[in-house]
């Protein structure tokens, strides 16, 4: 792996000297790695957050945006495999579009690189995507207004409006490429976290993530809108921290990779 590969693909807002957990986060459609700044601050000192930086935005704005989901997932999994520390369990967390991206990255990482857990926020599971009407480019502004509290400021900006709308549209197009495969697809625990004020994704939809794991499934709710990570970072940190510690104690050593190593 090129020495700059990890730094270009993942932003680490608070590097830890000796972390016990690594939480790899994937933002919503059009979202940036900086969306997870507050969550990184709220996490305990033993948890290091990595936020995915996709091509075509912010520090990588000169690169063309991804148009192939399989290629994007392959690139991210290659970087994570190369950078993984066997002594530091890695969990994945994704919000909205990022939840589906995180799930596909986790599916490709296993079983060669065990994943401690997958946390999905405000995201429909893959098999429900086919029942959701495709959003046209003209409908993207309305979608932003429904899901992002800061969208009006962006839409009013002559400088940023088109840039952000194009990023969101590109990510939504990638959703059409999410594969619907035989379930369950993951060995790791899956934790669904829903916002009770989310106008787009209901708890009944989120609960169907249970079909995707052979392991533990949990369902949590927060009094939050669609974008939970920024609106309720402290509460989300508490939930995720408790879940990861429980997963480490109950599920991690039962993973086939660890059982093989112990023989």
TrEMBL record:
<dbReference type="InterPro" id="IPR020802">
    <property type="entry name" value="TesA-like"/>
</dbReference>
<dbReference type="InterPro" id="IPR012223">
    <property type="entry name" value="TEII"/>
</dbReference>
<protein>
    <submittedName>
        <fullName>Thioesterase</fullName>
    </submittedName>
</protein>
<dbReference type="InterPro" id="IPR029058">
    <property type="entry name" value="AB_hydrolase_fold"/>
</dbReference>
<dbReference type="Pfam" id="PF00975">
    <property type="entry name" value="Thioesterase"/>
</dbReference>
<dbReference type="GO" id="GO:0008610">
    <property type="term" value="P:lipid biosynthetic process"/>
</dbReference>
<dbReference type="GO" id="GO:0016787">
    <property type="term" value="F:hydrolase activity"/>
</dbReference>
<keyword id="KW-0378">Hydrolase</keyword>
<feature type="domain" description="Thioesterase TesA-like">
    <location>
        <begin position="24"/>
        <end position="244"/>
    </location>
</feature>
<dbReference type="InterPro" id="IPR001031">
    <property type="entry name" value="Thioesterase"/>
</dbReference>
<comment type="similarity">
    <text>Belongs to the thioesterase family.</text>
</comment>
